[in-house]
Amino acid sequence: MHLLIPHASAQEPHVEAALRELELPALSALLGLLTASETLGDDDHAPLPPHERALARLRGVTDDLPPTAAWRLRDAGVAPGEAVWALVTPLHLAVGTDQVTALGAATLGLTDEESRAYLDALTPQVFPAHEGWGTFWLAADAWAVSHPSLEGQEAASPDRILNRAVETWMPRGRRLRTLMNELQMVLHGLKLNEERDARGLRPLNAAWISGCGRDRGQALPEDLLVDHSLRGPMMSGDLQAWGEAWKALDAGLLSEALRHVKGGGALQLTLCGERSARRWERRAAGGWQRLKERFTPARVSVADAMEGL
Predict the structure, then answer these.
(1) Are both 73 and 174 inside the same structural domain?
(2) Residue numbers of the domain that contains 260
(3) How far apart are the first and last CA of the chain?
(4) Do residues 72 and 191 share a domain?
(5) In terms of domain of life, where is this protein from (predicted)?
(6) pLDDT of res. 295
(7) pLDDT for position 236
């Protein structure tokens, strides 16, 4: 069993302080039974956040251009084929006095129906089939597009830019910058935005392109479980909701994992922050080891264990 938890921590002092205030007894006890085995990454300015890099490595891809869009298609039951795919994330760019902030579909309240309508409206103007484009709707916050010109294009993951300043994350390659500018211009004139404005909602005025490449790598391990429950609160900056999500995770999945380990089962636990992903593991234990741990239970400070993530 391998449990991977994205957005377990972050580098901001207020997040680290909030983590120290949380009581997570199952995780504390679990870490006391596991051994730290590997730390992946040490750069919170890398285009890929640690959880995406860790997942790519589990697929056997270790470079900086994992084909995230193709994998999303595969996960949705769609064969990516030999095409070059990219992930398109619809956004509202909010211009402030000192930065431009990217707001995603969840913040905008974008419904599945609206999201599909936007992709349908953009397709003939930006992604026309007669020019070799292909499109596929994945979710309200994610579309997939394919075209040979997307080969080798690098851009930061959406998790790096959502609800943050986008300037420092802009792709260096001219192709993606040009395409993103074209999307902005076409979105500006869409009637769909007028309808949202009439309802007092922010328009879609931009889109982020990332995860380019042809499908490659292997399937994720069957015993892997990725829990994304911390993502929404972390991405929206809602520390109270993030803390509540941590407590629910501790009372549920992590308590189950603790029982599994106490019963002698093997476990890998990967906790991912903004800078690094850290893995702990426990091989199957015999009866004597379990008896010893029963009478001398070890607990670990969760905040200390995740320091630097």
Answers:
(1) yes
(2) 2-60+219-305
(3) 22
(4) yes
(5) Bacteria
(6) 47
(7) 87
Positive or negative torsion for Cα 93, 96, 100, 103: negative
Handedness of CA 97, 157, 45, 237 (dihedral sign): positive
Domain boundary at 190, 214, 238, which? 214
Instruction: Let me know whether 185 and 255 are in one domain.
Output: no
Residue 142 · residue 91 · CB < 8 Å: no
Low-confidence ranges of the chain (pLDDT < 50): 288, 290-291, 295
Do residues 209 and 90 both lie within one domain? yes
Tokens of 57: 């490595």
Q: What is the 3-state secondary structure (H, E, C) of 70-127?
A: HHHHHHCCCCCCCCEEEEEEEEEEEECCCCEEEECHHHHCCCHHHHHHHHHHHHHHHC
**Same-domain pairing of 74 and 54:** no
Q: How many domains does the chain have?
A: 2
pLDDT value of residue 291: 47
Q: Is 59 helix (H, G, I), strand (E, B) or coil?
A: coil
Question: What's the pLDDT tens digit per position in 255-274?
Answer: 999 999 998 899 999 999 99
pTM (2 d.p.): 0.90
Nearest Cα to Cα of residue 217 among 50, 51, 63: 63
Measured on CA atoms in the order 213, 214, 217, 222, is the torsion positive or negative? Answer: positive
97 and 78 within one domain: yes
- DSSP SS3 for 207: strand
DSSP 140: T
Residue 274 has what pLDDT? 92
List, for residues 268-301, the tens digit of each pLDDT value.
999 999 999 999 999 655 554 544 555 455 678 8
